[in-house]
Amino acid sequence: MLAVFGHTNPDTDAITSALVYASFLSRQGVQAQAYRLGELNFETAFVLRELGVDAPEMLPELPAGTAVALVDHNESAQSAPNITELTVTRVVDHHKLGDLITAQPPYLRFEPVGCAGTILLKLHREANLGVEPREAKLMLSAILSDTLHFRSPTTTPDDRDAVAFLAPIAGVEDVEAYALAMFAAKSDLGDTPAAQIFRMDYKEFPFGDPAHPDAVQHWGLGVVETTNPAYVFGRKAELLAAMDEARAENNLNGVLLSVVDILNETNRTLILSATEEKVVREVFGAETVDGVADLGNRISRKKQIVPALEKHFMPQA
Ligand SMILES: [Mn+2]
């Protein structure tokens, strides 16, 4: 049985792509089971509840050598704790290639599109496999989530085509209304502890030349996508404390928490210390005022934040 899973601190794409790819593989005669690497966020819980679909189980500790398939990620820092001991046989992803190393030739499908769900739809169409309403709504939800319903600069024509194809099958007549309901669910944070809010959409990245491991910096980058940024800034002090804890706990050089206003398409980022303040000034030209730096319309971590930091920390040739 092939274990299929998305990244830690899963978002909607990480969960739904694991479910859809596992069922796709099973239909192709490859026994596969979806798992998750963390708790669902409120948006994903809403999507699964709407569909009456159970969340995948937490990935158990897998013995070394177990065959696995990765969706929506490929970097070891964002994967199962013992990923380097597992046998990665398949990856379907739309992120930059990281430190993936395999002993055997794997099946790899990478495309620079807005969502892993968009690639999964292509796999169905290429295999002449019909898309069931359940799978259609899972993929549709992932694409709307990852692209913020086409607001994100990561959006490609393929993502738009996929949504146009999937919405009628999924029975979603008003796509924007459905997207807004997802975003509202995601923004309804209630009394969620600050540490959990910081971790909900959080990824760690090594920056710098891997040939000089001593010079590599490790940064933790959190994002809160919300229709209610005022609520998040109301908890600024708690969030900064949670960031401080995470930095110490995980031995990080820096941490950032970007608060993305989905509807206004802006990013205001919480700045913990002089270290982050300096980097954000040098990389983005943004000054920090009261612990907040205005990063303007840079709402995509993948496309607008990570590449700029990567370049900054890479030794100049
Ligand atoms: Mn994704």
Largest sheet features: 6 strands, parallel
Poorly predicted segments = none
What would CATH call the architecture of the largest domain? Answer: Alpha-Beta Complex
What's the CATH class of the largest domain, please? Answer: Alpha Beta
What this model shows, in words?
The structure is a single chain. This protein has 317 residues and is an alpha/beta fold. The chain has two domains: 2-185, inorganic pyrophosphatase (n-terminal core), CATH 3.90.1640.10; 194-313, Diaminopimelate Epimerase, Chain A, domain 1. Helix content is 40%, strand content 21%. It contains eleven helices and twelve strands. The chain has helices spanning 12-27, 42-51, 116-126, 133-146, 157-170, 175-187, 194-200, 229-233, 236-249, 274-284, 301-313, and strands at 2-8, 32-37, 57-58, 67-71, 87-93, 107-110, 202-207, 217-226, 254-261, 266-271, 288-289, 292-294. The protein has a six-stranded parallel sheet. It has a six-stranded mixed sheet with strand order 7-8-9-10-12-11, sandwiched between helices. Strand 2, helix 2 and strand 3 (57-58) form a beta-alpha-beta unit. The longest helix has 16 residues, at 12-27. The radius of gyration is 19 Å and the shape is globular. The N and C termini lie far apart (46 Å). Residues 13, 72, 94, 115-116, 146 line the site of manganese (II) ion.
